[in-house]
Amino acid sequence: MQIKILRSETNTHQLYSLPAGEIPLLNALSYIKETQDATLTFSAGCRASVCGTCAVRVNGREELACAYKVKPGDVIEPLQYHPVLRDLKVDKHKAKETLVKSTAWLHEIQEASLTHSDEKLTETQTDCILCDSCYSACPVYAVNPDFLGPFALTRAYRYSADKREGDAKNIIDNIQSNGVWDCTLCGECTAVCPKGIDPKMDITMLRSSSIQFGHSDPSFATQSFGTPDFGGGGFGFDPNAGF
Amino acid sequence: MVDVLIIGSGGAGLTAALSAKESGASVLVVGKTYPTNSQTSMAQGGMNAALGNVGDDHVSSHIADTIKSAHGLCDEDMVRQMCGDAPKSIEWLESIGVPFSRLDNAQQGTKTVAQRQMGGASAKRACYAQDYTGLKILHTLYDTCLKEAIPFLEEHYLLNLIVKDDIVKGATFLDIRTGEVEQIDAKSVVIATGGYASLYHGYTTNAYGSTGDGVAAVLRAGGAVSDMEFIQFHPTALKHSSILISESARGEGGYLVNEVGERFVDELKPRDEVARAIFSQMQEGQRVFLDVRHLGEGKLMELLPQEVELCKMHEHVDPATELIPIKPVAHYTMGGIDVDYALEVNGIKGCFAVGECSNAKVHGANRLGGNSLLEITAFGKFAGENAYKHSIYASSKPADDRQLKIDTAHIEELFKREVNLNFYEQREALGKLFYSHVGIVRENTKLNDALEKVITMQVALPQMGITDKAKENNQNLIEFLEFTNALLLAPTTISAAIARDESRGAHYKLEFERENEEFKKHIILQWKRETP
Fold it and tell me: What is the CATH number of domain B1-34+152-230+334-527?
């Protein structure tokens, strides 16, 4: 079986041969590195879909290398919207900065009586492994590199919805600019999440909370002032389409 | 010069950073990956604390269970401190927002945290978040570090500690991105670099990076390591991929069965006993399975969602309807950097060690499930505080660049070295050798044979090296350095296992199948310092 991997040094797809049989992509990459080409560079960790290290794109779709079974002819490339450091290894620093900007943490603890259904409220959101798949799949980054993005917003939602949070307004205030209203609700993030998280739904929930806390959709606000192409309209792209 | 340099960014390192900062220290966390990539994310089942939320429990029972499982090799004062701190640790985690699983009991705060049964525990004591306990604790710690503006330096690989007159002065690192060797000066250092179960490459539940980098660095710097022979084998890893299936699967009622469908051991005994029972079934030619079918799909998805997914993906079985093929593999290293009551490394002042890399003598010969997440949070806090206290009176005169020059020269030499042997093959061979010769059941002839083979490998080390000569982002180089560390630690484990002519906890030796009072002691190893 043969697969192609995008090499950064030459910016071309290099063909590699693998033995036939079922093999997770991560094992295939290790096999290539150990036996054929030690220069092939990628990131790896737990092998069990929980450390968030090994996300790449396979045929244009984000996958955890440890969880994806290789098929003949697969094309492997690094995540999008991350500076490529080498081959499949990317710099996640800028993406992680979105967590700081979103202030996605518990701001002010308050005593609460939590129940099983409270646990369920953010159970899936807290399964996030920060693999950056959703960030790579998000088309908003093509027009707005400062977008807070799916994983940071999901995390902001997770804390804002926590009954222990005594200052949810603070979180909501911090995700207005380049945040909830810049999402197009296209659902690409939801489609690629390896943990079944639905950032699109979380962002929708955050929009409701935003309105409750007195914020409003800036595209409506600007429309009333007669500038309907706010936020990237110049790119032929309306970040608020469909909402 | 930073007050407290924290090496390693898993749960122990992040907790130490938060506590050192809270105490008043300037801190810097340096790790070879990103913080949330660490081994802590793989902890599944839970974290022990005698809260008594589900049936009666008391701290004294937690202490008694831990001491019993340690088989005489723990320090009871350290165990008392850890178990006594456990409820406070849960309270702290609750206060930063860890999303624990909950009970419907109309109580407030930590009284609502759900608790489950784990092996060797006399009560339902493990607080959990489904089977993602480590992941959710780790990520909440990370979020809190961002909140507290803890500075991180990612992708920096620890080369050596800088030690002068037995006092730590900082450490040298390889910046993986640039390929430069750098020196970081510090008044105190906390090592939180994780365990060394990746010695069992291919036969471990651990991530690739658990290569004992910090333990090896301490040994090279003249510090002590101890109990290196005590390796915990987890009874239930998936047969073909060695991926962990949590003990909570048995805690929730799962059975272990052989291929004729017989149960052959009390599944809730401590891990050492269960692993040996499985091993002996396998020696008789039996295949062994974990059976959770009777729990039903609803309960499985509620309590063990990650396990269900991993079984389907890696073993092609649906746990709700099929048996899960398993085998025991290396999971946790009880031994490590020898520390005193303040978690300060014996032999290196101002240097502290915490988490799996450290031997704080709380697990002894066999760790209880749920006690490692406890150790990293309870002792992580303690290590951070103690490192800060040391930094107050430590000299602020930075070390010279002697170590930096040595390490720079070593890396340069590696780039020039001619390679005749593929170290990846050697790494594979070392993993196989350890599983077969330094495994669940040991015997002196095999251990001696393993020691000989490891020494041969060490002699051949100058024939091995890197074939990727790129300076930046050279993962080949990092993996070689990691292998070098594993190879350094390999003989410490084997020689301690040879010396221990008895069976105790996770160390089980044929012809010496009983505990021997003479060996109720720690085997401590320390190198004589070569240079003045």
Answer: 3.50.50.60
